[in-house]
Amino acid sequence: PTLEGNLTGQAKTPPRLVHPANLDVVSLPAALVARCLNLGGASLTLDAACASSLYAIKLACDELEAGRADAMLAGGVSRPDCLYTQMGFTALGALSPSGHCSPFDLKGDGLVVGEGAGVVVLKRLEDALRDGDTIYGLLRGIGLSNDLGGSLLAPSHEGQLRAMRDAYAEAGWRPNQVELVECHGTGTPMGDRIEIESLRTLWENEPFKPGQCSLGSVKSMIGHLLTAAGAAGLIKVLMALRDKVLPPMINFTQPGKGISLEGGPFKVQTQPEEWVDPGHPRRAAVSAFGFGGINAHVLVEEWVGQKAAPVKEEAPEPVAIVAVASRFGKLKTQHQFMQTVFSGGSAVEARPAMRWNGNPLAAIDTPGAYIDRLEIPVGKFRLPPSDIPSSLPQQLLMLEVAAQAAEQAGLKREPKARAGAIIGINLDPDTTNFHLRWAVDALIEQWGAEATAEEREKLRQSASPVLDSTRTLGALGSIVASRLARELAVGGPSFAISAGEASGIRALEVAVRALQRGELETCLVGAVDLAGDPRSVLAAHKRRRLAADGKVKPFGAGTGSAVGEGAVALVVKRLADAERDGDQVLAVVRGMGAGSGAAAYQLALERAYSEAGVEPGQVSLLEAAATGDPDEDAYEAAELGRFFGTGLPLAVGSVTPFVGQTGAVAGLASLAKAVGCLQESLLPPLPGFEGPAQGWPEHIHFPRQASFWYRNRQDGPRLA
Q1: Who's near 334: CB < 8 A, 6+ residues apart?
Q2: Domain with CATH 3.40.47.10 in the chain
Q3: Per-residue pLDDT, 17
């Protein structure tokens, strides 16, 4: 309507009520697979740029090794808008002008974009043997890292090397025991040169025969599948192991500038060749590297009858929350947020006049916890001043809140190879603005309007600036975590998680698991969502009822939810490490659970309490989702009543009346509130509660005002 009004003087066309699932595009793939195949385990989508599918496979392996799943589907899919990729990669100087992907070759002039998907089914070896499955290969080691050097666009062999060495350490292999490396090999001269440099450094102390290790890149044949690239490379290797053939790649005749292969251990495999028995199971490696300095390296072994090694079961180690920061609507700090909670106030108010460019859009206008202004002083972050106007507000908001948490935890700007940054996000509608620019001519025709070339260009500029390199990079989901990694000198896995409104809490779960396995020492966890974008509000109206007055009334006479915007950041460490380092321990994570399908709610509860070794009746504060939508609240009330049948007095609260429904941040918003309550030993009020519309067990109550959180010392610490 804004574009139409700019051209014709009146906006006659109402907002198009598109399906709300369009805004779930980043989290929907995994959720759809789980639902369609009736899978009851955890599901999530992640964005680790071009290493995404290998990161997904790593998380799947972790679930299997921990016994939280019996089988996992993992992989990647990439079907980007071709106009966006062609223009975007051209702006980045990465697209091949010749249209040929020539990895490691002198004529290599850039990448060629491919489309596709690759998925593998993973099981523990002992289970696969028991079930009589075809075994294509064994995953022996996976290393993940983030560059400490380089830039968001330029890779660093230091980060690549750490991922490789971690994989070899896990597998217990020497580099010279691998006969095939499926490289990232995009055909970009600098990227290819650095990858070969990383491999040569990895092998520098290894005895070798010239050309004993074959190199390849499937991108020479099918293009760069971006988020699915790692899966494509892995499947190629699995088929090579099955057929005992070293597979060729094409478009290679002579090494590119700075790529030295002669006399070294590597050769580019240009013809199919029998994979001769090396005297041990055939072995291969797969690499995937992404924008932002994201790295993954996977080691694969042929199965020739090896037996499964016994899995050492250990109790999950408790994880400490040592810092928490938040911003919701007009509440700029965690302190302001908790003051509002304990006073029974709310950040929900009328939409700021200049949000939505001043267009009232009366059909969908609704109160909410909107963020009116976001100010980032030049020089505060390691962002070139020219990049700030081109950066998405959502990314800047996450930077601001994460910086507060990092300062609170005493994290310095010094290299931290064993620290990570994992962020929960949903689709940011601002990443689609470029499409409006490209659609101007078609829209003018649709409106039946006349427009000069000058008017058309003004409309394009009002829709979106030109898609340059900064905006192309900024539209990638993983960059929000990569910016944090760069800002805090984080060298561990740094990526984004998407699981709808559970995105933030699932990011925390992934971080907790990495800490418990000893892969990280510290992790910054966060979530961000500017859910007050008119497109998000439009989808919210289709998804659930929104209260016209913005007053959320959970578990009672509610008429709907409210819009919420904000971000939360936590710093987490193993409890033993936090105590050793003298950190302030704000709360301890004892158990986490997730599920899919019709029984997801009960499965998540059961798994979390089982892991924590806690009975439901021991908990005295429950932060519910309680959106204020009558149907959603009725369902949740029934599930909670079934699970929390008896026990200690249990106070039920919800963050929604205070800050609205905050999208990807919702789970961490509840956690930030619970942590604040634990710190102050106060039970929070539940504003808007007018008496339950559902039947609840007698021990469950709904506080009308803040009250002291009593505990019996014999019962141990307070539990929420």
Answers
A1: 324, 325, 326, 404, 672, 676
A2: 79-114+137-301, 319-715
A3: 55
